[in-house]
Amino acid sequence: MEIDAAREVRTTCPYCGVGCGVLAKVAADGQVSVRGDPDHPANFGRLCSKGSALAETIGLDGRLLHPEIHGRRTGWNEALDIVASTFSQTIAEHGSDAVAFYVSGQLLTEDYYLANKLMKGFVGSANIDTNSRLCMASSVAGHRRAFGSDTVPGTYEDLERADLIVLVGSNLAWCHPVLYQRIAAAREKRPEMKIVLVDPRRTMTSDIADMHLAIAPDGDVALFTGLLAWLGQHNALDRAYITAHTSGFGQALFAASALDLTSVATATGLSEDELVRFYSLFAATAKTVTIYSQGVNQSSSGTDKVNAIINCHLATGRIGKPGTGPFSVTGQPNAMGGREVGGMANLLAAHMEIENPEHRDRVRRFWNAPDIAQKPGLKAVEMFQGVADGRIKALWIMATNPVDSMPDADAVEAAIKACPFVVISDVLASTDTVRHAHVRLPAAAWGEKDGSVTNSERRISRQRSFLAAPGEVRPDWWIIAEVARRMGFAEAFAHETPAQIFGEHAALSGFENDGERDFDIGAYAKIDAEGYERLAPFQWPVPSPGGGTTEHLPTRFFANGHFYTADRKARFIAIRATTETRTTADFPLILNTGRIRDHWHTMTRTGKSPRLSQHIAEPFVEIHPVDAQHHGIGDADIVRVSSPRGDVLVRALITPRQRQGCVFAPMHWTDQFAAKGRLDALTAPLIDPVSGQPALKHVAARIEKFAAK
Ligand code: SF4
Questions:
Q1: Distance in Å, CA 68 to ligand 1 centroid
Q2: Measured between alpha carbons, how far is 33 from 25 in angstroms, rounded to an integer?
Q3: Which label site among 28, 209, 340, 647 has the fewest CB atoms less than 10 Å from its CB?
Q4: Which residues, other chains included, contact 365 with Cβ-Cβ below 8 Å and sequence gap of 6+?
Q5: Which atom of ligand 1 is nearest to the CA of 16?
Q6: Pocket test for ligand 1, best of 106, 178, 463, 599 (most atoms within 8 A of CB)
Q7: Are 405 and 397 spatial neighbours (Cβ–Cβ below 8 Å)?
Q8: Does 454 reside within a domain?
Q9: Which residues, 6 or more positions from 201, have their beta carbon under 8 angstroms from its beta carbon?
Q10: Taking a C-beta distance cutoff of 8 angstroms, is the pair 201, 207 a contact?
């Protein structure tokens, strides 16, 4: 496309799920500058350190600019032909479940939609899963259990209107900084607002917390199940709401009643006094929002944690009203968009269910699909196990780096190396994953491509190009469509622009929707190129723009007390808190993995910015002073952190902010960034049985001094 150097282009930040609006400009000398978009409803002009440094991460260093086969530069035709023919041949010889796509929350909705359509409608397998499985799958599963649909009820405005915000397993100050800034600003205006942080670590987010509950790892189910019992015992339930709009309350309360305060204190590592103060505050505050992210989701009991939280909101009728609700915030910029188009192995497009025969038939007819997938496919961890044991013989990885980010990363790398055919579409030429590909397809980067993303509050925003595409790079949707055409599906993949794909996705969301489905942007089905170019950020459900398919939709989810279950009632889930000990005599500590303020995932983008690298220059492990003394470790010593799967060398950071018996290390650094080993080589492929999300925050580990500072 033609790039107008004098114009500021409205686009969206490619990092976290807050989804901030960005204004990007290219000066006459080619220098890019960015600033927060004052008109974007997610950030109103704010940007965090990562967003502010976006211009520093743009450049051609390390870019993959031409298609390659076995490291040899080639043209698009040859590369696309070999991808299409090898996938087709593998399917013909071994069946459709012998191939898989591993995709990413970095993909735009249009890319995600086409990849999902190709795999589920035309290949006939549901073996497409996403790195968002590592980020929010437990929330998706918890929503579906409780609401009958994957619906995030809250909005960012609710955070500003709440009288109590409970942050669970969420270091918002570093991981969703603009959301944190919005809460901090609201708190300045309303000092009576209370904030409780539930986290084993005293993170930077604790700076605005009135109460920090330094909970034991995976103590969340006990904490919120105990809260439900407390609400019942202290006459703090909304009985009218429970009766009118929910089912299963009796069983849930019965299960919760097995826990008295003393046993909750034991399971959570909190004192009874702390529990009573928190429970009393929750019981007394009608306008409460509970925000949660990876500390809840990345757990072998993640889905139960989500439902334990939702149970407390249902029991008090604190959902569907301003300033209330359980609120899962997503990690990736387009984790939510992926959910909308069914970019997970157990979902269909437009929030339909792969296990629902009517949904399958509806999507099949809409796509005119020859071979719709009949059953869920392999979820992320299972997918790489399938690669390892030979079930998957052709794998296409799009815009992600699983060799560094999957649990049990060394085993994942070995599986990819042994896979007969690996295709990678990526912006970079040499991530730890890209180097194992047989075919490398150069993808357009942020600023070079057009599409849309959806943030944590269901707000759809455009990403717009403002840079000419270098070399032979192409947008992901184009690459997927070209492969699909060569596999014989030319008619269904005739799209020529992302606007056409967005319109098709919108039309599917409204197709035969009788009000049963909550996701409906059917009003945009006929969007043209100009309308798409002008598209301003909007939230779904879409208030009726004067007719069409959206008149039945609420403007606030669950305000009318109707949910998406068969009887329209929200479901309480009866949960029993269990405690699991993973530590052993050899590995007596619990390793918690996470993120820091100025880096993103495996640093393939933020690692390019000297400014971002200054914040924290090298990998580290946080250790409580008592544990440090016990192991003879001094501040800044080099420490070996080991699990039964591997080890890394990192710098010791001794701090009372860390809970005794636990250590914390960020997941970003890899060998590529001067680390000695990658952290995810230590984590285990242990998953939540409902959601399939890996338990990345609870790994048995040990520490030992390697060398003095
Ligand atoms: Fe980007 Fe998230 Fe920072 Fe906003 S808060 S600027 S979306 S990284």
A1: 33
A2: 5
A3: 28
A4: none
A5: 2
A6: 178
A7: no
A8: yes
A9: 171, 214, 592, 622, 657, 658, 659, 662, 664
A10: no
Specify whether 175 is located in the same domain as 122: no
Same domain, 34 and 123: no
Which tokens in the block code for residue 469?
């595409």
Q: Which of 676, 610, 131, 673 is nearest to 430 (CA)?
A: 673
Q: How far is the CA of 309 from the centre of ligand 1 (A)?
A: 26
Phi, psi (rounded to 5 degrees) for 54: -55, -40
- Does 647 fall in a domain? yes
Pocket test of ligand 1: the residue of 12, 18, 35, 334 to mutate, having most ligand atoms within 8 Å of its CB, is 18
SS3 assignment, position 442: strand
Residue nearest (by alpha carbon) to ligand 1 atom 2? 16
Q: Ligand 1 centre from 634 Cα, in Å?
A: 35
Q: Whose CA is nearest to atom 4 of ligand 1?
A: 20
Domain range enclosing 697: 589-707
Alpha carbon nearest to ligand 1 atom 3, residue: 48
Model pLDDT, residue 205: 94
- Give 20 Cα–ligand 1 centroid separation in angstroms: 6
Co-location of 364 and 426 in the same domain? yes
Q: Are 402 and 299 in a shared domain?
A: no
Smallest CA-to-CA distance from 14 within 111, 155, 101, 141 is with 111
Q: Give the DSSP H or E segment for 128.
A: strand 128-130
- Ligand 1: residues with CB < 6 A are 13, 15-16, 18-20, 43, 47-48, 50-51, 176-178
32 close to 467: Cβ distance less than 8 angstroms: yes
CA distance 288 to 290: 7
At 307, phi and psi to the nearest 5? Answer: -70, -30
Report the distance separating Cα 387 and Cα 390, nearest Å.
5
- Separation of 284 CA from ligand 1 center, angstroms? 33
- Is residue 683 within 8 Å of residue 616, measured between CB atoms? no
* Residues β-bridged to residue 195: 165
Q: pLDDT tens digit string along 405-416?
A: 999 999 999 999
User: ipTM exceeding 0.90?
Assistant: yes
CA–CA separation, 365 and 352 (whole Å)? 14
pLDDT tens digit sequence for 4-48: 556 799 999 999 999 999 999 999 888 999 999 999 999 999 999
User: How far, in Å, is the centroid of ligand 1 from the Cα of 28?
Assistant: 27
Q: How far apart are CA 3 and CA 60, in angstroms?
A: 18
Q: Identify whether the C-beta of residue 403 lies closer than 8 Å to the C-beta of residue 601.
A: no
What is the number of alpha carbons within 13 Å of residue 614 lying toward its C-beta? 5
Burial of 266 (0-12, 13-18, 19+ CB in 10 A): middle
Written as six digits, the tokens of 497 are 């622009």
Whole-number pLDDT of residue 196: 98
Q: Relative to the CA of 42, which ligand 1 atom is closest? A: 4
The most distant pair of C-alpha atoms in the chain lies apart, rounded to whole Å, by: 71
Report the distance separating Cα 562 and Cα 314, nearest Å.
Answer: 12
The pTM is what? Answer: 0.95
Distance between CA 162 and CA 160 in Å, rounded? Answer: 6
| CA-to-CA dists, residue 351 to 103, 277, 646, angstroms | 18, 40, 39
Number of folded domains that form the chain:
4
Model confidence over 303-340: pLDDT tens digits?
Answer: 999 999 999 999 999 999 999 999 999 888 898 888 88
Q: How far is the CA of 670 from the centre of ligand 1 (A)?
A: 23
Same domain, 298 and 355: no
Give pLDDT tens digits for 180-195: 999 999 999 999 999 9
Separation of CA 17 and ligand 1 centre (Å): 7
